[in-house]
Amino acid sequence: MTANTGLAASRRHETGKGVARRLRAAGQVPAVLYGKDQEPISLTLDAREALSLFHSISVENTIVNVQIDDDKEVLETLVREIQMHPYRPDIVHVDFYCIERGVALEVEIPANYNGTPTGVRDGGVLEVILHEFRVKCIPSKIPESIEIDISHLDIGDSIHVSEVPMDEGVELLTDPGQTACLVSAPRAEEEVEEEVEEGLEGEEGVEGEEGAEREAPEGGGSEREGDSDG
């Protein structure tokens, strides 16, 4: 189950680009909290506190308890979007989604591939296709990560989404037929095989040209004789 963590926020009564610029200059970040059947709430966050928190958690699947001013109720939220400055490590804006206890929601869960494949020990190459899986579950069931054992994979073996185990109460939404990871043959061997195949094709082409040249004199000679007569 994913961990809960907290973040303090203040209600914001003014909106607009000018207000947002002043907030950022004062070390704050504008944010919005929205949810099902509720009006969006404009907020401000402490920039350093927010940046420190987001760097320490898996943003996609960590429940953030937002405390607004002195409200007694702490709102359980998921971070839906973090807008960053294009060339500075500064947060520009944050969107929170207020979740409902006991109501299933869709989240992206990071995948951890554990172990060293047998095929890699023999010179193969591990190729990870999926780094995250989309799942649906109630907030209390959200997993921190999806653990996948790959130690048994040999060269040419793969794991598909349908083979990834899920905890009870967690529904996997990612296409079950999609490949999650595979162990491929060493790239050097593949390149050598391609070069050999290209070489064989080239030899066939040369033999075809030589054959054409050997056949040419019969027809080609009469044409030259005709030209010399002219």
Overall outline = elongated
What is the CATH homology-level superfamily of the largest domain?
Answer: Ribosomal Protein L25, Chain P
Low-pLDDT windows of residues: 216-230
Give helix % range.
Answer: 25-40%
Q: CATH top level of the largest domain?
A: Mainly Beta
Fold blueprint:
Blueprint: E1 4-11, H1 17-25, E2 28-35, E3 38-46, H2 47-56, E4 63-68, E5 75-84, E6 91-98, E7 105-114, H3 118-121, E8 125-128, E9 132-137, E10 146-149, E11 158-160, E12 171-172, E13 179-184, H4 187-229
Parallel strand pairs: 1-4, 2-6, 7-10
Antiparallel strand pairs: 1-3, 2-3, 4-5, 5-6, 7-9, 8-13, 9-12, 11-13
Written overview of the protein:
- The chain is of the alpha+beta class and 230 residues long.
- The chain folds into two domains: 4-98, Ribosomal Protein L25, Chain P (Beta Barrel); 105-187, RNA Polymerase Alpha Subunit, Chain A, domain 2 (Beta Complex).
- The protein is 29% helix and 37% strand.
- The protein has helices spanning 17-25, 47-56, 118-121, 187-229, and strands at residues 4-11, 28-35, 38-46, 63-68, 75-84, 91-98, 105-114, 125-128, 132-137, 146-149, 158-160, 171-172, 179-184.
- A hairpin with a 2-residue loop joins strand 2 and strand 3.
- The chain is elongated and about 75 Å long.
